[in-house]
Amino acid sequence: MIGVDYIFANDCRHYFKLFGFCTLIQNVEIQRETCAVFFARRKTEENDILPMIRSPRAAASSRSCSDRPESLSEDFRHSLRRFGNGVTIVATVDRQGQPRGLMMTAVMSLCMEPPSMLIAVNRAASALPFLLERGRFSINIIGAGEEEECARFARADAETRFVNHDWDCGTDNIPRYRRAAATIICDIDDARPFGSHMVIQGLVRESYYAKEIGGLVYLDGRFFNVKAGG
Ligand SMILES: Cc1cc2nc3c(=O)[nH]c(=O)nc-3n(C[C@H](O)[C@H](O)[C@H](O)COP(=O)(O)O)c2cc1C
Question: What separation in Å is there between the alpha carbon of 102 and the centre of ligand 1?
Answer without folding.
Answer: 6
